């Protein structure tokens, strides 16, 4: 579905200005080994290109790796996940310094950077691979996720109920190399210019986080 949307966007706005010129695209540091205080969190919220940019923009996050999680198929790839038959969702594995950014802040950023009421899609990206999932590794993380859902629900943030899955983490499969840091490597791609970057700028304006 994403490839189809890229073609539509390209035909509609191939000559539009690049918004990527207005800010520095944050990238991850892939070469540093896990530090003493480094922890890992895993989220799915639609296109993983978007998710990489969201989390890597936050102070305390070293890297966000695109990949697949939440399914029942060993060694999935982009084509099999896009078919909808593996059960996986496009996911990011977030590596962060727990002394600089907290897990509750990451969870808040996760919900703030998507519409968690959309079932099996985000915007025009449609399919179970784009569903919203907050993966937890322990009971505390589960409680943090559920507390944020309750807070947003009680505040009547959305007209519709939140449909984000709260799921125990099992296995993460990194995506193909060409998906990693896709936005920073392809800032003038039509989908990036007209979908990914505007979504990120909207998130950055709304979220009261500590940005790089």
Name the helicity range: 25-40%
Main β-sheet description = 6 strands, mixed
Strand order of the largest sheet: 7-6-1-3-2-8
- Overall CATH class: Alpha Beta
Indicate the low-confidence ranges by residue numbers.
3-21
Averaging pLDDT over every residue, what do you get?
A: 89
Distance between the termini: 32 Å
- CATH homology superfamily: Peptide methionine sulphoxide reductase MsrA
**Cα-atom Rg, whole angstroms?**
16 Å
Total count of strands: 8
What is the H/E order? HEHEHEHEEEHEEHH
Number of domains: 1
Name of the CATH architecture: 2-Layer Sandwich
Number of helices: 7
Report the sheet-strand fraction: 15-25%
CATH fold call: Peptide Methionine Sulfoxide Reductase, Chain A
Mass-distribution shape: globular
The helix-and-strand class reads alpha+beta
Domain Peptide methionine sulphoxide reductase MsrA: 41-191
GO molecular function: peptide-methionine (S)-S-oxide reductase activity
Protein name: Peptide methionine sulfoxide reductase MsrA
EC number: 1.8.4.11
Topology:
Layout lengths: L1 H12 L24 E8 L2 H9 L4 E9 L8 H5 L6 E9 L5 H10 L8 E2 L2 E2 L5 E5 L2 H16 L10 E4 L3 E3 L7 H4 L4 H17 L6
Parallel strand pairs: 6-7
Antiparallel strand pairs: 1-3, 1-6, 2-3, 2-8, 4-5
Quick synopsis:
The chain has seven helices and eight strands; from the N terminus they run H-E-H-E-H-E-H-E-E-E-H-E-E-H-H. By secondary structure, the chain is of the alpha+beta class.
């Amino acid at each position: 579905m994403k490839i189809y949307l890229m073609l539509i966007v390209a035909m509609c706005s191939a000559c539009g200005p690049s918004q990527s010129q207005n800010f520095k695209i944050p990238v991850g540091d892939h070469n540093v080994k896990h530090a003493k205080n480094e922890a890992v969190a895993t989220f799915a919220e639609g296109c993983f290109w978007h998710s990489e940019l969201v989390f890597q923009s936050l102070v305390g996050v070293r890297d966000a790796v695109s990949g697949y999680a939440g399914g029942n198929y060993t060694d999935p790839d982009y084509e099999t996940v896009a078919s909808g038959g593996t059960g996986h969702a496009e996911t990011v594995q977030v590596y962060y310094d727990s002394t600089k950014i907290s897990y509750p802040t990451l969870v808040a950023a996760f919900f703030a950077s998507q519409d968690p009421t959309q079932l099996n899609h985000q915007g025009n990206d449609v399919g179970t691979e784009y569903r919203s999932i907050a993966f937890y590794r322990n009971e505390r993380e589960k409680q943090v996720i559920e507390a944020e859902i309750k807070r947003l629900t009680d505040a009547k943030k959305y007209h519709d109920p939140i449909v984000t899955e709260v799921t125990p983490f099992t296995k993460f499969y990194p995506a193909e190399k060409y998906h990693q840091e896709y936005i920073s490597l392809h800032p003038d791609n039509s989908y990036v210019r007209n979908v990914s970057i505007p979504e990120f700028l909207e998130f950055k304006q709304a979220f009261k986080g500590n940005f790089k």
